[in-house]
Amino acid sequence: MFRQAASRASALARQSAAGGQRRQMAEAVAADKLHFNFFLPGGTIQKDAAVDMVLVPASSGVMGILPRHAPTVAQLRPGVVEVHSEGTKDKYFVSSGFAFVHKDRTDVCAVAAAPLSDLDASAVAQGVTDAEAAMAAAKTDMEKAEAQIGLDTYTAMRSALTMA
Amino acid sequence: MTSRVALKVAMRAAGNSPGAAGALGASLSGRGSLWAPVAPAMASVGAPRGQSSPSAVAVEEQVRWVNLKVVRERMKTVANIGKICKAMKLVAAAKLRGVQSLQEASRPFATGLGEFFSTMDDLEAATTAEAAKTDPSGEGKKQLIIAVTSDRGLCGGVNAVIVKEVKQMMIEDAGATPTGIMLVGDKGREPMRRVHGDNIVVSFKDVFKAPITFPQVCMIAEDVLARSYTDVVLVYNRFKSAMEQEPVRKPIVGLSTVLDSASAFDEYEFDSDMDSAQVFVDLFEFQLATQLYNALLENATSEQAARMSAMDNASRNSTDMHAKLALTANRVRQAGITTELSEIVAGAASVS
């Protein structure tokens, strides 16, 4: 799982390195922007924002959403949502949730999200160690599954931080 | 002197009626007339002596002073209760602000998801009508009613209307479908247990003790999913305004229906590394938790709003009652002074 996430993350790195290509694509649709909403159960991060592109950590890999994307429902895994707007990149770590690409707008409904800069690297490292210990100590399937979720989330956070 | 006569009449009338203490209690709600709450109070003190002693004057004197004391004690009680009600009102107002802002913050999240499912609702209405035609008996259905109430009382009628609504649903259904009741919040348990005790499958308490969080709701949602009901109906108070809350029934379409009407989402691509049916299941679970979260927040807001207005009414009632009691106390005191004066005058006249 970690390897998968890491490969996804490195894929993400390559993608951002090839910025020139993307810029061309963005220019092609410069006339219109992506109508973007980012919702949490306890609040709203962005509402009716006009952005250039959004990268979401879909369960099958990082998905880039540009204006006029085909309608899609994507389940999110722990990872980074990147919002590109006017040359600035806002990065948020999300735990899970769904992204809905509608014809006229894109909604990201996450269970929990935090700006990537708010994550504490040492706390994340500690979390990975704890999750690994819990994984080793888990006996039943239920415990194993719970530990796996914790481990996945923490490793995703760690790789997100090393990427940043 | 007229007030003295009136007092006597009231005493005699009330002396025969039992339950003076009950009248005292009832008068707390501010329903009693000016004399009704006070007269029995006097009777409870004065009547037994009046019956045992033949000396009318002596009794009256005792009654007069004790009575004034009783009235003053009641005034103090009413004032204290009024203070408590006022404090509760202020607390409810503060809590209402907090929970209302939370609810408003969560609204876009729920609507964002709800709008996606609304495409299905249109289609679902058609399919259920069809399903009802082919399967009028509704066999194989299992219904779960999730009744959302508050954990604490003294909040007007918000819990009573929920209980009423659920009972009404049970009557309408008339035992046609096996129904389970899930109680979220503690105040629905006692009234529901008496009538539909067998239907209650689980009850959660202290849900609203701390502000509601999404993970907490997920736990409840998980419990709902584990029970495999085909239909789930949420019953809760919808917050319309600080003065108005209304009970609503919100049916949540079952998983089987979602899977059946998957064609509604044909225009959407499903991005997943598993099969798309699994995404549907996950999406359904997410939707259930979101609806539940929304319902709990609505009900929590309604509860605080209802408590605020109930306590506002109660503190206003206590002010009214205090004023009435003050009038009574003054009259009684005045009557006492008048009696004393006439006694002194009569005594002086008999001596000279």
From TrEMBL, chain A:
Subcellular location, principal: mitochondrion
Compartment(s): Mitochondrion inner membrane
Pfam families in alphabetical order: ATP-synt_DE_N (PF02823)
Occurrences of domain ATP synthase F1 complex delta/epsilon subunit N-terminal (ranges): 35-113
Keyword Transit peptide in annotation: yes
Keyword terms of this UniProt record: Hydrogen ion transport, Ion transport, Membrane, Mitochondrion, Mitochondrion inner membrane, Transit peptide, Transport
CC terms in the record's Gene Ontology section: mitochondrial inner membrane; proton-transporting ATP synthase complex
Alphabetized GO MF terms: proton-transporting ATP synthase activity, rotational mechanism
This protein's record includes keyword Translocase: no
InterPro entries named among the record's database cross-references: ATP_synth_F1_dsu/esu, ATP_synth_F1_dsu/esu_N, ATPsynth_dsu/esu_N
Membership in a protein family: Belongs to the ATPase epsilon chain family.
The protein's name in its UniProt record: ATP synthase F1 complex delta/epsilon subunit N-terminal domain-containing protein
From TrEMBL, chain B:
Compartment(s): Mitochondrion inner membrane
Keywords attached to this entry: ATP synthesis, CF(1), Hydrogen ion transport, Ion transport, Membrane, Mitochondrion, Mitochondrion inner membrane, Transport
Pfam families: ATP-synt (PF00231)
Topology within the bilayer: Peripheral membrane protein
Gene Ontology MF annotations: proton-transporting ATP synthase activity, rotational mechanism
The keyword Transport belongs to this UniProt entry's keyword annotation: yes
GO cellular component: mitochondrial inner membrane; proton-transporting ATP synthase complex
InterPro entries found in the cross-reference section: ATP_synth_F1_ATPase_gsu (IPR035968), ATP_synth_F1_gsu (IPR000131), ATP_synth_F1_gsu_CS (IPR023632)
Family classification: Belongs to the ATPase gamma chain family.
NCBIfam families: ATPsyn_F1gamma
Name listed for the protein in its UniProt record: F-ATPase gamma subunit
Taxonomic placement: Eukaryota, Rhodophyta, Bangiophyceae, Bangiales, Bangiaceae
